[in-house]
Specification:
alpha/beta, 7-stranded parallel beta sheet, 6-stranded parallel beta sheet, 16 helices, 13 strands, binds uridine-diphosphate-N-acetylglucosamine
């Protein structure tokens, strides 16, 4: 039997990978899960395993925080040891965090095929660490699972072979659909004395927004203004809290609380009047829930969320954010179509493809070589074939 090695590391990985891990377990596939420890606080990690009923990881690298190079390097060293010991037939990574790239790189160098869940998204902004992680991971992967048509188009545009790309839908929305009833039944808004449909929810953690005091002050100015008309609840990422203290940001009437668990946040998001965020996943979750989302960024790697009408790009100035929030609040009802294949079945589709690939004759899933491209280059430069081997 061939071993599947699943990788998780940071908060958004857990919701994306849980449907894959649970479906593989249901089918009796042999698998191990490695937690890199990129996120380690119980509110950023353990609480998600419990809520998603994810089995405890088989390995925990416990790498913790650090600079990008330091964190990525420590994950690589630890993960290489696990790969050499367990010899997986496939490594499955999700999303775009440092753990995703670090483990994909280790596997590819050991000639272990890589599957990438949530492949092909592009902001076309290489100042985002996640954009670098996405591009490199996709070019190391053999099985690329896309969530929206733009993902497939981007990969084809980068010369990745069509037979390696699989449009499967969004596994994060599988998690949402399996947990929304319980999340609503818990009525998490009551803990904060909020009324359904009469509050806004904020998340903010991107380095581009919180590490630059001028940008953070602009955003803070907008949040304070909006909170005069609508109560705003702000579960705060540890990085953001640290920056607020360093820069001396006072959010006035905005209610700043600790990071929340998956179910609590999901319930609050589902009944929010508006969500203001710089997260990627939350743009998708609000789309699935039909809740207006104001994205505090200049670009998005998830254009489908804007196309279906739930999400708007607000920029990062006080003026542009307040205007976007006003527009969102004046929308009586968000009418939107659910993006194709965001139907709760993405995990099943992914495992179908993985199982088929592992069972195919021979021991190996093909490594990502774009043969058409090699052929084209060889044709274009006759006589230089040897250089391309
Ligand atoms: C990471 C991802 C980002 C994702 C985000 C979700 C990268 C490059 N970034 O950003 O794509 O959207 O996770 O949260 O991988 N910290 C704690 N406790 C924790 C984890 C972090 O206090 O459990 C603090 C530490 O001060 C740390 C800082 O948060 O230095 C940043 O953590 P890190 O994992 O480097 O990046 P995130 O900002 O969380």
């Amino acid at each position: 039997m061939k071993l599947i090695c699943n990788v998780v590391g940071a908060r958004p990985n857990f919701m994306k990978m849980a449907p894959v891990v649970l479906e593989a377990r249901r089918r009796g596939l042999i698998q191990v899960t490695v937690h890199t420890g990129q996120h380690y606080d119980s509110q950023m990690s353990a609480i998600f395993f419990d809520a998603l009923r994810l089995p405890k990881p088989d390995f925990d690298l416990g790498v913790g925080s650090g600079s990008h190079a330091d964190q990525t390097a420590r994950i690589m060293v630890g993960f290489e040891r696990i790969c050499l010991d367990t010899k997986p037939a496939l490594v499955v990574v999700g999303g775009d965090v440092n753990s995703t790239l670090a483990c994909a790189l280790v596997a590819a160098k050991l000639t272990i095929p890589v599957a990438h869940v949530e492949s092909g998204l592009r902001s076309f902004d290489r100042s985002m660490p996640e954009e670098i992680n996405r591009i490199l991971t996709d070019h190391l992967a053999s099985l690329l699972f896309t969530t929206e048509p733009s993902g497939t188009q981007n990969l084809l545009g980068e010369g990745i072979a069509a037979d390696q790309i699989h449009f499967v839908g969004n596994s994060m929305i599988d998690s949402l659909r399996s947990h929304i009833d319980q999340a609503l039944a818990d009525k998490p808004w009551e803990r904060f004395d909020l009324e359904p449909g009469r509050y806004g929810l904020i998340t903010l953690h991107r380095p581009a927004n919180v590490d630059d005091s001028a940008v953070f002050s602009e955003i803070a100015g907008a949040l304070i203004q909006i909170s005069r008309d609508l109560p705003l609840l702000f579960p705060t990422h540890p990085r953001t809290l640290e920056r607020m203290e360093q820069i001396g940001i006072d959010l006035g009437t905005v209610r700043v609380v600790e990071p929340l668990g998956y179910l609590e946040f999901l319930g609050l998001m589902a009944k929010a009047r508006v969500v203001l965020t710089d997260s990627g996943g939350i743009q998708e979750e609000t789309t699935a829930l039909g809740v207006p989302c104001v994205t505090l960024r200049l670009n998005t790697e998830r254009p489908i969320t804007v196309q279906v009408g739930t999400n708007r790009l607000a920029g990062i100035t006080t003026f542009s954010i307040v205007n976007a929030a006003r527009e969102a609040l004046s929308q009586a009802n968000v009418s939107h179509t659910l993006p194709a294949l965001w139907d709760g079945e993405a995990g099943r589709r992914i495992v179908n493809i993985i199982e088929k690939a592992l069972n195919e004759k021979g021991t190996h899933i093909s490594q990502p070589t774009n043969r058409d491209e090699v052929g084209r280059l060889q044709g274009a430069f006759p006589g230089e074939e040897d250089c391309l081997e």
